[in-house]
Design brief:
By secondary structure, the chain is an alpha/beta fold. The protein has helices at 26-31, 40-46, 49-63, 73-78, 80-88, 108-126, 144-150, 187-190, 205-222, 232-235, 238-254, 262-274, and strands at 14-21, 68-71, 92-95, 132-133, 155-156, 166-170, 173-177, 192-193, 198-199, 225-230, 257-259, 282-284. The chain has a single domain, classed as Alpha-Beta Barrel (TIM Barrel), CATH 3.20.20.370. Helix content is 42%, strand content 15%. Strand 6 and strand 7 form a beta hairpin.
């Protein structure tokens, strides 16, 4: 099923990264900047991150696992105490833009400005230089890879092109891509907020977990990479977080699972490549330099 599976450490059948994007109310200011200050209920919904993060950290501590949190620079500046509690617990902090802006809607200059502002904010608040990146809303642009390579990032986790790690290459260099997929996001499963235009039908934790565990079972059987893209204010709520706890128990009992941060996974992949133990698939970016010429036929 996977043509070029990587051999995971200690003969693990798959690698698991339960990653969280701590957006907090940054997304409210992007969604409706002129009236964000009036949306008190929505802000309280998003600020639940401050309740969920301590809960998640205690859960991880019980199982003695370390994971990755993607954080916008604005969020780090406004919730420094919560963000630094993640660092102090030994987890990885990775970059998630500045104000959850969408990179591929910006000019190259605008994207670079916000990228560097987020990058510097994370370093300033935590004292940690982020090595990983996830584009807000997965909106990786034609220019994103250049900024990641220039600032010596180790990996990206925005794209969806494989079941195992691969390499993305651009004009300035390359790095490891740790792919995920929309089905691994909690947004389609749980998110409802009519005030900012999200009106999906929320699923029960068991129904959502059936989707996530189907992906896990396939990754475990075929040697894949399982990366969740969850949000503390969404999946960190009581019933959902309780179900995640049971999920971790199940994975541990099943055995042969490598729980790791994305930084650890990317470093292991690089070491495997350098040691000749893994030959990853490589993709050149961007895929296209402009609109397809076929559009001219439609005029």
């Amino acid at each position: 099923m996977i043509q070029n599976p990587i051999k995971w450490p200690n003969d693990a059948r798959c690698a698991v990264a339960i990653t969280f994007d701590m957006d907090t109310d940054s997304i409210l200011h992007v969604a409706d900047p002129k009236t964000a200050d009036t949306k008190i209920c929505s802000a309280s919904w998003l600020r639940y991150d401050t309740i969920a993060i301590p809960r998640l950290l205690k859960m991880y501590e019980r199982y003695q696992i370390k994971q990755t949190f993607f954080i916008p620079g604005w969020t780090a500046e406004h919730y420094a105490e919560t963000v630094n509690s993640i660092v102090e617990a030994g987890h990885e902090i990775a970059l998630h833009g500045y104000l959850h802006e969408k990179p591929n809607t910006l000019s190259a200059q605008e994207e670079e400005y916000w990228f560097m502002r987020g990058f510097n904010a994370i370093r300033s608040v935590t004292g940690v230089q982020p090595r990983g990146f996830r584009a807000p809303n997965y909106r990786f642009s034609k220019h994103t890879l250049n900024y990641l390579v220039r600032e010596q990032f180790l990996y990206d986790s925005s794209l969806m092109g494989d079941d195992v790690p691969y390499v993305i290459e651009g004009g300035r260099g390359s790095l490891i891509e740790l792919p995920t997929e929309w089905v691994m996001d909690d947004w389609p499963q749980y998110t409802y907020n009519s005030e900012i235009g999200y009106t999906m039908q929320p699923n029960s934790p068991d129904r959502a977990m059936a989707v996530y565990l189907a992906e896990f079972e396939a990754a475990w059987e075929y040697g894949g990479l399982w990366i969740s893209v969850w949000h503390p204010f969404v999946s960190g709520r009581l019933a959902r977080c309780s179900r995640i706890d049971k999920m971790i128990q199940y994975m541990i009992e099943k055995g042969s699972v490598w729980f790791a941060t994305l930084g650890e996974i990317a470093s292991y992949v690089n070491d495997s490549i350098d040691g000749g133990r893994y030959v990853p698939r490589r993709e050149k970016l961007p895929y296209y330099n402009g609109p397809t010429e076929a559009l001219n036929l439609c005029k």
